[in-house]
Design brief:
By secondary structure, the chain is of the alpha/beta class. The chain has eight helices and seven strands. The strands form two sheets. Strands 2-1-3-6-7 form a five-stranded parallel beta sheet, with helices on both faces. It has a two-stranded antiparallel ribbon with strand order 4-5. It is globular and about 55 Å long. The structure holds flavin mononucleotide. Flavin mononucleotide binds next to loops.
């Protein structure tokens, strides 16, 4: 059975706005077949900062820290799809996810190789069967001049087989009074999950519908501003 590992990077844990999208996506995936899905609330894990000593890259992949990252790395190696679900913070990933991503260093070695016009460390673990996905919600109504740094970072971190879903106006998912617009959007996300499970991709039209604002930007801003 294929394994899906979800890293929920919201400090709000299960109450995350973004996780509404992620759960809908997983519902779609589950419609397509049986999957072993494990959701990790990163905020509840003990993950120390990377110390930058590079010992893990020289010694076969063991970090000096003995914390929850050991289990996380084991789960990543056994996974088929890794979903990073997180809110946009300061145009990038929140600290919980950044700490986790830094601590992925044991998966790579010191050796640098030129790939696609840039240098990268080559892996000391074979992750070729792994697919990566970013699901990111944000508070502003605009995607442009907002999501770009996070999207660029994710593409550099996980080139190749990565899928990215960015959703503006995300706090609406936690507002029951907005259900008439968030409900249909979550149905689209569920459809995308099923499509992804069956084809390993999401059609461009569907993705464009999902990442567009649910209500006009100025209307959203007016509501957020109190009227
Ligand atoms: C520290 C902080 C930084 C934020 N930075 C951005 C930002 O750069 N752009 C944006 O559109 N929203 C930003 N937001 C808003 C969150 O992305 C938004 O509230 C999101 O819906 C929270 O999702 P969550 O409930 O999944 O954590 C920020 C929120 C916080 C608390």
């Amino acid at each position: 059975m294929k394994k899906i590992l979800v890293f929920n990077g919201s400090p709000k844990g299960d109450k995350s706005d973004t996780m509404h999208i992620t759960r809908a996506f997983l519902d779609g995936i589950k419609d397509a077949g049986n999957y072993d899905i494990h959701i990790v609330n990163v905020i509840d894990k003990h993950i120390e900062f990377c110390r930058g000593c590079f010992s893990c890259m020289r010694n076969g992949g063991t970090c000096i820290h003995d914390d929850d990252m050991r289990d996380v790395l084991t789960e990543i190696k056994e996974g088929n799809l890794i979903i990073f679900s997180y809110p946009l913070y300061a145009y990038g990933m929140p600290a919980s996810i950044k700490v986790l991503v830094d601590r992925l260093l044991p998966l790579t070695s010191m050796e640098m190789r030129e790939v696609d016009g840039r240098y990268r460390h080559v892996g000391q673990t074979d992750l070729s069967k792994l697919k990566f996905m970013m699901i990111c919600g944000c508070g502003f109504p605009n995607s442009r001049k907002n999501f770009e740094p996070a999207v660029s970072q994710f593409k550099l971190l996980f080139p190749g087989d990565s899928t990215i879903i960015t959703v503006p106006e995300c706090p609406m998912f936690n507002a029951p009074e907005a259900a008439s617009v968030t409900g249909p959007r979550l149905e689209l996300v569920k459809k995308a999950g099923k499509e992804y499970a069956m084809t390993d991709s999401i059609s461009i039209d569907l993705l464009e519908n999902i990442i567009s604002p649910m209500i006009p930007e100025d209307v959203y801003a007016k509501i957020v501003n109190g009227g």
